[in-house]
Specification:
It contains 13 helices and 14 strands. With 351 residues, it is α/β, with parallel strands linked by helices. Helix 3 packs across helix 4.
Length: 351
């Protein structure tokens, strides 16, 4: 039986480490306030001019090095992001060009925080059907563009103007969301091989009901023009979120889909050796862990160090878990996530 195996992993972050205390320079917040609500201690932001495809390139090179492969051996790219370099085209072709891959196909997918799981499913189908031999799957985000402040030098501790009282109040208006996000990219290299090891199965779902609980109101073609000066003045280009609704969805649907993928593949949740959940909020992941009755040694979290990097969180966590010896050959690993749309899903891997 052909199964898709993960041959290599790698990740990169934005250039600037920003601890919680630093965010207090541009908005009304504190380390204690952020930790209590999210578990996050720090995140990384890019320097101006660094794009999502740039981060994807860095992660791709590391994953290829880890796999012991050359870029020229990749014959298909799958790129998951909700923060592309441009409205169009997507980042897949931009990464293809930066890697010097000629005319290999590049697919862009938009499932936000569940993008990596959907990307795994698509890549698995491409490989096991023979449509591709080596797939490079990337999840990358530059959330800095969503941030409402303009005082980046001051935030990074460089010489530059501090926000006025009015500007700080504006920045603080969005703090429930902006403290959560960071910039990073993760990548995996995939090939199919015969044997019992590899991706075992998937369960994915979508439900557009109530999408307004987590979305960007403007910058889309449901309105004309797709962005206006009023949108920017009112902050409608920044994601809006009903935090309580999203939390409730995540802590119910994520455990449910883990049970579904386990049942479909003839294993029990207790058989899992490691659960790697999308890193949106540590409180969500703790609730999912309790619902699944998994001990601490079977769960991997790193949101404390990177914040929510959307499509990049799972490949980053996988890379760190592998390097820490938490993923060993033959072990059963489950990936799970829920994101805007809403989309949610889980994937099962025999490492």
């Amino acid at each position: 039986m052909l199964r898709t195996r993960i041959l290599g992993t790698g990740f990169v972050t934005g250039e600037h480490l920003v601890k919680n205390e630093a965010l207090a320079r541009v908005m009304d917040t504190s380390d204690a306030w952020i930790r209590e609500r999210s578990g996050i201690e720090q995140r990384y932001f890019v320097e101006a001019g660094t794009s999502t495809s740039d981060l994807g390139l860095g992660a791709a090179r590391k994953a290829l090095d880890d796999a012991g492969l050359k870029a020229s051996e990749v014959d298909y790219i799958v790129f998951a992001t909700m923060t592309p370099d441009h409205f169009f085209p997507g980042c897949g072709a931009l990464l293809q060009n930066k890697l010097g891959l000629g005319h290999v196909p590049a697919l862009d997918i938009r499932q936000q925080c569940t993008g990596f799981i959907y990307g795994l499913q698509v890549s698995d189908a491409l490989l096991r059907s023979g449509q591709a031999q080596t797939v490079l799957l990337v999840g990358a985000e530059v959330h800095a563009g969503f941030m409402p402040w303009t005082q980046w030098d001051h935030l990074f501790g460089r010489p530059g103007p501090a926000p006025t009282a009015e500007e700080k109040a504006w920045n603080s208006k969005f703090r429930d969301r902006t403290v959560l996000f960071g910039d990073a990219a993760g990548a995996v290299v995939l090939r199919a091989a015969e044997g019992e090891r590899g991706l075992l199965g998937f369960k994915v779902h979508s439900d557009g009901t109530g999408f307004e609980a987590l979305y960007v109101p403007s910058c889309g073609f449901a309105q004309r023009p797709y962005v206006t000066a009023g949108d920017l003045a009112e902050g409608r280009h920044i994601p809006q979120m009903n935090g309580k609704h999203v939390f409730k969805l995540a802590v119910t649907r994520m455990p449910q889909v883990v049970r579904e993928v386990c049942a479909a593949n003839g294993v029990q949740v207790r058989d899992l050796d490691l659960l790697i959940a999308h890193q949106a909020n540590l409180r969500i992941n703790e609730a999912v862990q309790r619902a699944l009755e998994l001990p601490d040694e079977k769960v991997f979290n790193n949101i404390q160090r990177y914040g929510n990097t959307t499509a990049a969180t799972i490949p980053i966590a996988l890379d760190e878990a592998r390097r820490a010896g938490r993923v060993k050959e033959g072990q059963l690993v489950c990936f799970v996530g829920l994101g805007a749309g809403f989309h949610w899903g889980a994937a099962l891997l025999r490492a």
